[in-house]
Amino acid sequence: MSMTQNDSPTIETTVRTTEEQATDRSQPTGRPVIEARNLSVHYGDEQALQNVTMKIPDRQVTAIIGPSGCGKSTFLRSINRMNDLVDAASVDGDLLLDGTNVYEDDIDPVALRRRIGMVFQHPNPFPKSIYDNVAYGLRIQGSTDDLDERVEQALKRAALWDEVNDQLEKSALALSGGQQQRLCIARAIAVDPEVLLMDEPASALDPIATAKIEDLIAELAEEYTVVTVTHNMQQAARISDRTAVFLTGGKLVEYDDTETVFENPAHDRVEDYITGKFG
Question: What's the structural domain count of the chain?
């Protein structure tokens, strides 16, 4: 995984030097799939992200942590251009997927989202059958060859097949919360995206369902680049290969391998947040 971080240009040179040193030690070792370059996002006059620069490598789990309102979800939504759906949003800087800036004028956001699946905080299955939920994206794309097999494979990869294989015509809304979330994951991966974004995917679930989602994330990272936002720092420590820490003002303060961030952070502000002194 990888990273760099650039705070606001107004920060003093001595602080910048310290952060640059921290950046040097966290250069990515894997192929970067996602790269933000001086990415800033405003919602009207409010700045939600400030000059974020980082690289996210292939087939690992990157956790995004930080206090409420620090820009975690905004960064996630920047990757697949969901901020386009917010009228007041404006984006500066670059966000690259496999070396291509997704904010170029000739990029189709709908086609982009086929390459970048997303799972939200609260399960949001469609009011359709379990089968039709998983098949939905494939049908929209016209990819209906071997549909039964592809639905089955997606449910298996989401660790749900054994629980629902004899009730595929049952309404998805009748599933438990944890099952619904795994169904949403199956729906997202059925179209075979390159990247899977997860915005607090277990925060609305009980501990048993949360454990299943965490195990599933580890398995998914064998096939996909996974970026997940979480408020649960223990969860970030358990499931991620790398951790990015955003703090107030939408600034990326630290990005490194997860063990380093939690056991030997480079910045006092990060240590204070992790140890509960604020946040």
Answer: 1
